[in-house]
TrEMBL record:
Residues 533-589 form the Signal recognition particle SRP72 subunit RNA-binding domain. It comes from Todus mexicanus (Puerto Rican tody). The keyword Zinc does not apply. GO terms for molecular function: 7S RNA binding; ribosome binding. The gene is Srp72. GO terms for biological process: SRP-dependent cotranslational protein targeting to membrane. The lineage of its organism: Eukaryota, Metazoa, Chordata, Craniata, Vertebrata. Residues 617-634 have a biased composition (Low complexity). Residues 540-550 have a biased composition (Polar residues). This is Signal recognition particle subunit SRP72. TPR repeats lie at residues 219-252.
């Protein structure tokens, strides 16, 4: 008994000092004395949990179920299961406990959050905050704000104002996440900047915290900032910030996986080698326990797309098939499979695959059929694409769909089908309006717009009688619409001129059409002032003509031409001074030394004509062009100009002479 008492004292002392390894040794000695000591077994489980040995702790609980009943050890058992990511088991353990202590309620909230049961989790934390008064109130509020942020992000639920004072960077961060879920990106960025400031202030107070520690803590805030930049289209800024975070090598594998995935989405089908490196970060151990189901699903989708971009067809099919088995109703897996088939030029199989999915999942048929229509257009089957689009009943009346179908039918010159599309859409709006209201009611703007577009289309393609019917309907809805009335009169003038005359009486008079314009203000404007001055000059000239005055044109003063410095008024100027020197009659050519008459033109080694034929002074007009390389005869003055690729560039003879001199210099040492 004395030995046991001493051991218990040791256990108590070690527990207070946080030395649970030594405490465990003392507990084991106590259990050697009494192996079924409930308190000792309970202490052993606690020591193992504090040392991180969760599996061993569960083993102790499972081997002593008779002694350690669920009422005694419920919290410890549930906590071990929670830490071992056996979340469902932890939930069952908590729910089976006879008494729900505050500790179990706290753990219950964490378990519900991990199971993504956000509504139940929100209720649990509200109950805890309402009924608890201790030093952990700030942590509970932080968890509560995290639940609201998760609802906004993953379930698109409008977050309610919890009235929490954002005094910590965790609360600011969670508030920013909630704003991102609502699409309020600018507000979210401001919240993140505030969170960063609060985080720096909080950590700067601790002298043991280094700058590297602060940057590591800020990594998750910076990651969310980069995500906002990416959503705003600032991909270069986002990419730079993502890479800075990766260089810090944070220990949070979930954060690294999300950043790597976002970089892959920026790269798309470019820089695939970088994407293949980044995808390894998404495969790190424990990632599946750090991220939500939607995040993990997005990562798997991107892996399949990356396999497609890197031409790993089998891997792409395998991943997309696995995703489809997990979420049979999801669109992306089947779209990825269809895209892979299209890359393999198997368009028919892709369309068949999409058709099967549309038949099995009518709720998602609209998006699938839009993809099918796109494939048909890519194949050149525009008419079949139109048939697929017209089979989407919920989109038939939409202005965008009507416009697309009319454009496609017009391209195929199928005017009747295009008019039929207009007619069906107009009828849909008529039926919808009749079902919504009783009695007469003005047509909706979209309805009237469709009627007008239909009328314009019919007029353009010569369907005047059909267009008249639409225009009359429009005019009936708004008799004061002068534009519609003018169109109607124009259409009737081609079909029934008498009717056009009758309708023209409804046109407003010119007096009613006069615009209320401030003439003085208009004339005093800058542009009008310039025009008025110009007009005034013309008016004055005309008045002079009317008065019979002679219309004398003002003579412009001629400037005296500048004479050359060596000008001599006694000497008669050269009449050929305007001609180029080579075209003047007295031009004798350039002096080329004593051997002038012996030098000919042409390639080296070719025979040349006599000097008299090459003398430019004896030609009648313009000088001849250079002869074609290798030619033996001189070119006459009337020859055509040789194409530029055969002409000798300016200074060619001199260059050739220099080359010959260089050869001579080189010959001294080489021969």
């Amino acid at each position: 008994a004395a030995a046991a008492a001493g051991l218990w004292s040791e256990v108590n002392r070690c527990g207070q000092n946080g030395d649970f390894a030594r405490a465990l040794k003392s507990v084991n000695k106590i259990l050697q004395i009494n192996k079924d000591d409930v308190t000792a077994l309970h202490c052993k489980v606690v020591c193992l949990i504090q040392n991180g040995n969760f599996k061993e702790a569960l083993g102790v609980i499972s081997t002593h179920t008779k002694v350690l009943t669920n009422d005694v050890i419920a919290f410890e058992k549930a906590y071990c299961e929670y830490r071992l990511n056996r979340i469902e088991n932890a939930l069952k353990t908590i729910q089976s406990a006879s008494q729900q202590t505050d500790k179990l309620k706290e753990l219950y909230g964490q378990v519900l959050y991990r199971l993504e049961r956000y509504d139940d989790c929100l209720a649990a934390y509200r109950d805890l905050i309402r009924n608890s008064q201790d030093e952990y109130e700030e942590e509970r509020k932080t968890n509560l704000s995290a639940v609201v942020a998760a609802q906004s992000t993953w379930e698109k639920v409008m977050p309610e104002d919890l009235g929490l004072r954002e005094a910590t960077y965790e609360l600011c961060y969670n508030s920013a996440c909630a704003l991102i879920g609502q699409g309020k990106l600018n507000e979210a960025m401001k919240k993140l900047q505030k969170a960063e400031e609060l985080c720096r202030q909080s950590l700067a107070e601790d002298s043991d915290v280094t700058e590297e520690d602060i940057e590591a803590e800020l990594a998750i805030i910076h990651g969310q900032m980069a995500y906002i930049m990416q959503l705003q289209g600032r991909t270069e800024d986002a990419l730079q910030l993502y890479n800075q975070i990766i260089k810090l090598k944070p220990t949070d594998v979930g954060l690294l996986a999300v950043i790597a995935n976002n970089i892959i989405t920026i790269n798309k089908d470019q820089n695939v080698f970088d994407s293949k490196k980044k995808v390894k970060l998404t495969n790190a151990e424990g990632v599946e326990h750090k991220l939500s189901k939607k995040q993990l699903q997005a990562i798997e989708f991107n892996k399949a797309l990356l396999a497609m971009y890197t031409n790993q067809a089998d891997q792409c099919r395998k991943l997309s098939a696995s995703l489809q088995s997990q979420s049979p109703e999801h669109l992306l897996p089947v779209l990825i499979q269809a895209a892979q088939l299209c890359r393999e030029k198997q368009h028919a199989k892709a369309v068949a695959l999409l058709q099967d999915f549309a038949d099995q999942h009518p709720a998602n048929a609209a998006e699938i059929k839009l993809t099918m229509a796109q494939l048909k257009i890519a194949q050149g089957s525009v008419t079949k694409a139109c048939m697929i689009l017209r089979s989407i009943e919920e989109l038939q009346h939409k202005p965008g769909m009507v416009s697309a179908l009319v454009t496609m039918y017009s391209h195929e010159e199928d005017i009747d089908s295009a008019i039929e599309v207009f007619t069906q859409a107009i009828q849909w709006y008529q039926q919808f309006q009749a079902s919504q209201t009783r009695g007469a009611r003005p047509k909706s703007p979209v309805h009237l717009s469709l009627i007008r577009e239909a009328a314009n289309f019919k007029l353009k393609h010569g369907r005047k009688k059909e267009a008249i019917s639409d225009l009359e309907e429009l005019w009936k809805q708004n008799p004061k619409d002068v534009h519609t009335l003018a169109q109607l009169i124009s259409a009737y003038s081609l079909v029934d001129p008498e009717k056009a005359k009758v309708l023209s009486k409804h046109l407003p008079s010119s007096e009613t059409l006069s615009l209320k314009v401030d003439v003085d203000a208009l004339e005093n404007s800058h542009g009008a002032t310039y025009v008025r001055k110009k007009a005034g000059k013309l008016t004055g000239d005309n008045q002079q003509k009317e008065q019979g005055q002679t219309d004398v044109k003002k003579k412009k003063k001629k400037k005296k031409g500048k004479l050359p410095k060596n000008y001599d008024p006694k000497v008669t100027p050269d009449p050929e001074r305007w001609l180029p020197m080579r075209e003047r009659s007295y031009y004798r050519g350039r002096k080329k030394g004593k051997k002038k008459d012996q030098v000919g033109k042409g390639t080296q080694g070719s025979t040349t004509a006599g000097s008299s034929e090459l003398d430019a002074s004896r030609t009648a007009s313009s000088p001849p062009t250079s002869p074609r390389p290798g030619s033996a005869a001189a070119v006459s003055a009337t020859s055509n100009v040789i194409p530029p690729r055969h002409q000798k560039p300016a200074g060619a003879p001199a260059t050739k002479k220099k080359q010959q001199q260089k050869k001579k210099k080189g010959a001294k040492g080489g021969w």
